Input
Amino acid sequence: MEKNYNIVLVGVGGQGIVLASDILAMAALEENPENKVRTSQLKGMSQRSASVIVHLKFGPSVDSPLVTKGSVDALLSLELSEGLRYMDYLNEDSIAIINNEINIPPVIFRAQKVEIDPSLCYGCGNCLADCKVNYYFKGNHDFLALNSPATSVINGKCVIQDSCTGCAQCFHACPRSAKRLLENATYPEMNQVASAIKKFTDNVFIIPATDWARELGNARAANVLLLGVLLGTGRLPLSIKTVESCISKLIPEKLVDTNLKALRKGVEKGKEISRTVFEKPVLETD
Ligand code: SF4
Ligand code: SF4
Output
């Protein structure tokens, strides 16, 4: 390799982004022990459904582990709107491969507001006990109050505090159904995502990676399938064989078979993309 390769992998917690980047990092070293490989992970709130981004750079002279905006060779997103969130890493030559899975992170709900219908609320306070937003879970259904709930009763009516996350946990306690979410947070349509990303690059492909992986018996192999698509397009300077060998080393034995199948399915789909969209792959992968 004469130049460094920059890739950003994004998605939400629980989708295997870090594992996918580990596979690539190991493959980059196995392919060429002279390669410098650097990676940086930012895991939102380190929990399921929180936003996750991993930067990975490899090549002859990698300094910082962070990919600068506008400089990725490839953006892989396991979640539709996460691809949109990080589109400013793209440039006109980049490729973006985005899973069409919708996995709405809690942060989206935080953008929502709870509305209380004053004609229904009579200030009984039932809903207060169910708000655990400011509480710390000690285990065995035991909570330690760190602060007051995000809802309280003032002058005979329920009010919502700024700390309300819009989680809706307290709604079922209301005998009058006086609380509801304001529908001010909307999820982007697939064509909105595609046209927004196309402002950065024409090479954007939104694919049903999770569905394809599910057909192979394990929807969670979508991360590896996405790697396969990138390999198949010829836009990743690693060989399929090396990536397969790293999958066998990094993934638990009982899951290796399905993941190898997912990789091959991805490669096949990536080759289709390459044949129909690009005149020829930029790099050969076999
Ligand atoms: S919606 Fe959630 S955070 Fe807001 S008041 Fe109800 S339980 Fe608390
Ligand atoms: S919102 Fe419902 S549960 Fe909460 S105080 Fe009002 S009537 Fe009671």
